[in-house]
Design a protein that fits this description.
By secondary structure, this protein is α+β, with helices and mostly antiparallel strands. The protein folds into two domains: 114 residues, FAD/NAD(P)-binding domain; 88 residues, D-Amino Acid Oxidase, subunit A, domain 2 (D-Amino Acid Oxidase, Chain A, domain 2, 2-Layer Sandwich), CATH 3.30.9. It is built from four helices and eleven strands; from the N terminus they run αββββαββββαβββα. β6 and β7 form a beta hairpin. The longest helix is centred in the first third of the chain and has 14 residues.
């Protein structure tokens, strides 16, 4: 690592988080899916929700591209697709969608056994089990409902990565992708009940929801079962924006949003 960072953003200090780690996101998701299936949960892949039916101010079911489901409770946990779902029930939220991009280099021999995050350069890098450098940055600056990757992102990221690791200039970028980040004005999630009885919302996690998945699942399940917000998620209630009772979680992802 070049501690001078090319002379523009010299490293003057650092934070060390010993218990911190990286995880293979897809493996974790499949692990949750397998655990849910073993407990009797039906998982329908490639099934698009087309409508949420309601009557007298209460949820009555979900219409999908593969048939209709009758139910009296629905939890929306769809991250960047949240505005599309909330529009079905005429529910307004302050969530905005920003693309979040990442890429990986060609494999190299292991040399990086931690994740490095630069708050001034707004980049992060770790090394996968296959030797690829996994690199990313903050969200794109413009609101956009799209998962299209861009050359502007990889060009700017490469410039910053070369400030940190000049030797990386010999590496080729192998893959690049984008996702949709749902971000609220205070960078904290929206969790809990909504004005529509039986409709619950868990969204607005931005770039750091992955870490909160276990407790999010537990508290939202409790909320749906008791039809009132769990005490841990009460600060994240939807009405807080109208009540000017914001939370403020901008630093939760350790990199500028």
């Amino acid at each position: 690592m070049d501690l001078d960072c090319g002379g523009d953003h010299a490293i003057q200090g650092a934070l060390w988080h010993g218990p911190g780690a990286v995880a293979r996101h897809d493996a974790v998701a499949w692990g949750y899916g397998r655990g849910a299936y073993q407990r009797g949960v039906d998982i329908h892949q490639k099934t698009r929700v087309t409508a949420i039916t309601q009557k007298d101010g209460r949820v009555t079911g979900v219409e999908t591209s593969r048939g209709n489901i009758q139910c009296d409770k629905v939890i929306s946990m769809v991250a960047g697709s949240t505005p599309r779902i909330t529009a079905m029930v005429d529910l307004h939220t302050p969530i905005e969608i920003f693309p979040l991009q990442a890429c990986v280099s060609e494999p190299v021999k292991p040399f990086l056994n931690t994740i490095i995050v630069s708050g001034s350069l707004h980049v992060y890098v770790s090394q996968s089990s296959r030797g690829e450098l996994v690199m990313g940055a903050s969200v794109d600056p413009n609101v956009l409902h799209s998962t299209r990757s861009s050359f502007d992102f990889v060009e700017e990221l490469a410039d910053k990565m070369l400030d940190l690791f000049p030797f990386a200039g010999r590496l080729r970028v192998m893959r690049q992708w984008a996702g949709m980040s749902d971000i609220t004005p205070d960078f904290a999630p929206i969790m809990g009940t909504t004005p529509l009885e039986g409709f619950y919302l868990d969204a607005g996690w931005g770039t750091w929801g992955f870490k909160a998945t276990p407790v999010s699942g537990k508290t939202m399940a409790w909320t749906a079962m008791h039809d009132r917000n769990h005490e841990l998620i009460e600060p994240f209630r939807l009405p807080r924006f109208g009540q000017f009772d914001l939370v403020g979680e901008r630093g939760a992802a350790s990199v500028g949003h």
